[in-house]
UniProtKB/TrEMBL annotation, chain A:
Protein name (database record): Histidine kinase
All copies of domain HPt, residue ranges: 15-112
CDD domains noted in UniProt: HPT
Gene Ontology annotations of biological process type: phosphorelay signal transduction system
UniProt xrefs under PROSITE patterns: HPT
Swiss-Prot/TrEMBL keywords: Kinase, Phosphoprotein, Transferase, Two-component regulatory system
Residue numbers carrying Phosphohistidine: H54
GO molecular function terms noted in the UniProt entry: protein kinase activity
Species of provenance: Pseudomonas fluorescens
Residues that span the membrane, as ranges: none
Automatic annotation (TrEMBL), chain C:
Record-annotated STAS domain positions: 3-101
Protein name (database record): Anti-anti-sigma factor
Provenance organism: Pseudomonas moraviensis
Superkingdom, taxonomy of origin: Bacteria
InterPro entries in alphabetical order: STAS_dom (IPR002645), STAS_dom_sf (IPR036513)
CDD domains reported for this sequence: STAS_anti-anti-sigma_factors
Gene Ontology terms for molecular function: anti-sigma factor antagonist activity
């Protein structure tokens, strides 16, 4: 089992800033991310991969998903150079990293509702 | 720390989560938030809602942030709408692209709300600064337009006042900038009733309207008094008194005044504070300097004012040249002055007197490279005395009510002779007779001649043969001033008699003095002489009037004028 | 240009020294140098040793000073004038109003 790579300090700040809207933010992020993941899987075009990865990176960064952001950066920088197999692997890594950190955000949602 | 004013901020960000997060942060800081999910929406929203500041994601679909920024900047025009780019591009890359697109700053992800607040505050300060600058610029431009208009109006009024002059006379040449009035430069010229010419080149302190405003009352005095036949001294006294009264203490008018007499072939000069004028004698090529011997006008009280003039003989075609200090003070690139020496070099090198102005302008151009706009020059030459000058004022009433049968006698004694010039008053009196108006020039000349003879040769006992050469000329006028100053006794009487005669009438002028008289027979024997400097007065009287005669051993002169009523 | 003032011990003599260009930009300073005194001095000296240039507004300022100091009753001396400055004062005949050296 991998350790979730989410920066807790960022989450604390987000919680503090968003106040009552924190759950909405989490939801929006999770939904956005699902969409981005399916886009990544669906396309083979390097430019599209790049811009999708860039976008995903930004969100991930803002939400404290540090490792996820790194992986997206990697894909963004190298989309033109890597072979289709290597790209597919990166996309799979991203997918898996998201699966790992997703519970953290679910958990945050849960805690926000009960507090 | 000063509280930040709430702004309307547009957030253009394609990621929904990021957009939500940023909106919340910005709203919490007290601002109103507008959102857009891509560049095109951002431009559209900007156009419709006019936000104060834009937070722009760099990479967005449909239209990216850079293009949207360019369009928004174009729409904003002169106003500053700060655009802060939101970016996770690497720093140096980000900065370069942002600035190119017209961005003012950038904010890196993850968003740090403290940094964001600081940047918003800083950008807003710049925005307000720009707004102030534009506002003040527009205010200044408007104010400047008002000022220009005021000057136009002032100049139009002044031109009406100054139009009655004779600067277009054939013996005057002048150079004056169209802005001369607002540089304080003034050039006036007018004929006296006797056909002499008064010329004034003046230079008021200061610039703009304050300088121009003093010129108008001055011009009125100059023209009014010259037309009535007052001499330089009286006109100067009046101008000085007027300026002293109306101008503030630190304002004054430097001026050179000339009275050119074609009949007596002389020029009378008064220079208060102006650069040297020059009397150019054609025969010898000499340039006699006419330096400033007096304080400028408007400084001294009436009692302290010095109206003494210098008189120089002039031959036909001799010229008097006056210039403002714009010539002497022209500087070159090293702040060296053109100066009096260079001017005199131009005089020396000038071979064609008619090209003097061109030579001076060329020398100034060579010296400085570009012309100044406050150079004023005037050149007045002595031409053969002409009969045609200044139309006599014509009145349209029937003349039935004017005095046609009357006589008046005046006696001017001692102290009054020192300071009072009765000629303008006597002329005004005679002009009441409409039939005489067309001869006002001749009448005035004759009256002036008889009066001056009575005063100078009769009462003061001066010998006009002194005036045969330039040195004697100067001495004559020195003696005149001295004897006049010391005068206690003596008189000049003027008798005027007007009677109807047929359809018109007759005027008899008789002038008597208390002097020793002269040998009338001897003088009458001389042929009518136009060339000599002295003794021309009698010829003049005999030519201009009728039945001129002298009695009482030359102490009494009589001359007549006739007129016919025009049908 | 700067304007430096100095009042004698007994308060009877005011010396105003001008350095640099004596022109309109110094109007305010020049006026303040004599208007602000508690006692009106009996005599005034304007020292132009370090003055490089004089224009018509400077002449105007001298007239204001003279007017303030009593007009015809004033005692004002203008000293240490350079040749150029002397020339300007001579053309305007200001030696008829001020003692110039």
């Amino acid at each position: 089992m991998t350790v979730p790579n989410v920066d807790r300090d960022v989450l604390d700040t987000l919680r503090e800033v968003m106040e009552g809207d924190y759950p909405e933010l989490l939801d929006t992020f999770l939904n956005d991310s699902e969409e981005r993941l399916s886009n990544l899987r669906a396309t083979k075009d390097a430019d599209q991969l790049m811009s999708c990865a860039h976008s995903f990176k930004g969100s991930a960064c803002n939400m404290g998903a540090v490792r996820l952001a790194e992986l997206c950066q990697d894909l963004e920088s190298n989309a033109k150079d890597k072979s289709p197999e290597a790209l597919a692997q990166l996309v799979a890594d991203i997918h898996s990293e998201f699966a790992d950190v997703r519970p953290v955000y679910e958990d945050e949602k849960h805690h926000a509702h009960t507090h | 720390m000063q509280a930040q004013e709430p702004l309307t901020i547009l957030i253009a960000e394609d990621s929904a989560a990021d957009r939500l997060l940023l909106s919340t942060i910005v709203r919490r800081q007290g601002h109103q938030v507008l959102t857009a999910a891509n560049g095109a929406e951002a431009v559209d929203t900007f156009q419709k809602q006019q936000p104060d500041l834009v937070l722009m994601d760099a990479l967005m679909p449909v239209m990216d942030g850079f293009e949207a920024a360019r369009q928004i900047k174009a729409l904003a025009g002169e106003a500053l709408v700060p655009i802060i780019f939101l970016t996770s591009l690497t720093e140096s890359e980000a900065l370069a692209r942002c600035l190119e697109a017209g961005g003012d700053d950038f904010l890196a992800k993850p968003y740090n709300q403290v940094i964001l607040a600081a940047k918003i505050k800083a950008m807003d300060r710049l925005r307000r600064l720009q707004a102030t600058v534009l506002q003040q610029r527009d205010l200044i431009a408007r104010h400047h337009d008002y000022l220009l208009n005021e000057q136009r109006v002032a100049k139009a009024v002044f031109d009406k006042v100054a139009h009655s002059g004779c600067l277009s006379a054939p013996n005057i040449r002048y150079l004056q900038s169209p802005y001369a009035l607002f540089n304080g430069d003034l050039l006036l010229a007018a004929y006296t009733p006797a056909g002499d010419m008064h010329v004034m080149l003046g230079d008021f302190t200061g610039h703009g309207l304050p300088a121009a405003v003093g010129a108008m009352p001055l011009a009125e005095v100059f023209y009014g008094m010259t037309a009535k036949g007052y001499g330089l001294a009286e006109t100067l006294r009046e101008m000085n008194a007027k300026l002293k009264r109306i101008l503030p203490v630190d304002m004054f008018c430097c001026a050179t005044l000339l009275c050119l007499s074609f009949q007596s072939r002389s020029v009378e000069v008064w220079n208060g504070g102006m650069p040297d004028g020059y009397l150019h004698r054609m025969a010898s090529g000499e340039h006699v300097p006419l330096p400033a011997r007096h304080l400028p006008l408007g400084i001294l009280s009436a009692q302290a004012f010095d109206d003494r003039t210098d008189v120089y003989p002039m031959a036909v075609d001799d010229r008097v040249f006056l210039l403002s200090d714009g010539v002497i003070d022209t500087c070159d690139a090293n702040d060296q002055l053109f100066g009096v020496e260079r001017l005199q070099q131009v005089f020396a090198a000038n071979s064609e007197p008619d090209r003097l102005f061109e030579d001076i302008e060329q020398a100034l151009r060579d010296f400085r490279g570009q012309a100044r706009d406050d150079v004023s020059m005037v050149e007045v030459s002595l031409l053969e005395s002409t009969q045609a000058h200044g139309a006599a004022p014509v009145y349209s009433d029937s003349g039935q009510s004017c005095p046609l049968d009357w006589s008046a006698s005046f006696e001017f004694r001692g102290a009054t002779l020192r300071r009072f010039n009765p000629l303008p008053f006597l002329l005004q009196l005679l002009l009441e007779v409409h039939g005489l108006r067309s001869q006002s020039g001749a009448m005035y000349s004759v009256l002036a001649e008889l009066y001056s003879n009575a005063l100078e040769h009769g009462v003061l006992g001066l010998d006009s043969s002194l005036k045969r050469d330039a040195a004697g000329f100067a001495r004559y006028y020195e003696m005149r001033a001295a004897r006049l100053e010391a005068l206690q006794e003596g008189f000049v009487r003027v008798h005027l008699q007007v009677q109807p005669r047929g359809e018109g009438g007759r005027l008899v002028i008789r002038v008597e003095d208390s002097g020793k008289g002269f040998d009338v027979a001897r003088v009458m024997q001389r042929p009518l002489d136009n060339v000599r400097l002295s003794g021309r007065g009698i010829s003049l009287v005999r030519q201009l009037g009728h039945n001129a005669s002298w009695s009482d051993q030359g102490r009494s002169a009589s001359v007549e004028f006739f007129w016919e009523i025009e049908a | 240009m700067s304007v430096v003032t100095e009042v004698s011990q007994d308060g009877k003599k005011l010396t105003i020294s001008i350095e640099g260009r004596f022109d309109f930009g110094r109007h305010q300073e020049f006026r303040e140098s004599y208007e602000r005194l508690n006692e009106k001095p009996e005599s005034i000296v304007v020292d132009l040793k370090k003055a490089t240039y004089l224009d018509s507004s400077a002449l105007g300022m001298l007239l204001l000073l003279r007017d303030h100091a009593g007009g015809d009753e004033s005692d004002i001396r203008v000293v240490n004038s350079s040749t150029d400055v002397k020339k300007i004062l001579a053309i305007s005949n200001f030696d008829k109003l001020f003692d110039i050296s």
